[in-house]
Amino acid sequence: MLTAFEEAIALLASGDEMLTNIVLVTLRMSIASSLIALAIGMPLGTALAMGRSKIASALVIVNRTLMGVPPVVCGLLCYLMFCGVGPLRWLQLLYTVEGMVVAQVLLITPIVAGNMESYVRGLVDDVRETARGIGLSRVRTALLLLGECRYQVFTVYLIAFGRAIAEVGAVSMVGGAIAYKTNVMTTAIMMYTNRGDFTLGIALGIILLLMFLTLNVVVSIVQRNVAR
Amino acid sequence: MRIEKAIKRYGAKTALDVAGIEFPRGTICAVMGVNGCGKTTLARVLAGTLRPDEGGRILGDGESVGYMPQRSYAFYGTLARNVALGAKERRFDDRCRGLIKELGLSHLEREQAKKLSGGETARMALARVLAGTWTHLVLDEPTAALDIPSTLAAERLMRDYCTEENVGIVVVTHSVSQARRLADHAIFMDGGRIVEEGPAADILSHPQTPELSEFLAILGS
User: Fold this and answer.
1) What is the ipTM of this complex?
2) Nearest to B128 among A134, A148, A228 (CB)
3) pTM
């Protein structure tokens, strides 16, 4: 076990080509999918929280259900859509990073929207009442409400990125874990562990933890400055 | 601004059931009563932020209503930005500057509004709504979080705003002494209904109903 750790550190220090590629593909996929999910989920969550109709209530329930969709189910759905006999085969997204991003966005957007919805719901009455009291328009009120969530956005982004980088079920089904193409850290850890090659798995595990730690530190610093 | 009829129910409970009230411009009306009597519901209906189940407020031509809710909310940004949101052009102009000076907030102009104390936030919220141009104002317990000097300064501002700009002001208050100092007219509510109303000086000195008599007796007024 100790030897495997030592070898993993040596592998990290050597700048191994395969390792670097896996990390870069992981970053590309996780950053793209978490940012897209944030861009869609934030206004969606805000709109859900502001809605008072029965349709809005129904949509909240639908979104909360989607938050719990197992990644493999999402992966299966995307696979069936993108595969050779699927309705979206013309997009040629199967076994591509872009296809993995689509699967991740489908998984993460309801989580972003749900988190925003529950946060905004706690603010919406006070903000709306105050804004209407001073004659602000609905659009201006919605923008103010989004502005009130600036602190929360970072937390939600951390959740989205954490989910994207740690997810394995959907990306392995849609991406296929093809070396130098769609193999990301989680799928690689699984693959190498199954082969009994713990060195690369441990090295990837260390990188995964360090990356999330770095992101947390950066976000905390930015968040503190925004809150000032 | 007037209400010919307004009924609001929450489940089986009738929170508001009022009729035939007028709020003329250039006067201040105090709305009083114990907790849960329907004061805030009436204020919200008048402000247009709550739609009653039946009836509602009626505004005349060109009439507009500003509203300060019971819970003063501070938006992100400085106190100046918050007050400017209430101004017609949404800019921190001389009027805004004058208001925060009157309310003793000038030294906090560049402070982050979220970091203000409860009393400071309430004064900021009052300045924000007074920065607008309205024909009527509805203020829900605007001085509940203020000390006595700040309360008196706020009352002075309200009276000036009412007189100089011919604005009809509705103030929800728990303070009988404030109603006596400030209001021309008073409404006493109980169980969602208006139990007694009339010139503030008259009904607060010579109550005609047992409900208001009891209320004043409890407060030692």
Assistant:
1) 0.90
2) A134
3) 0.80
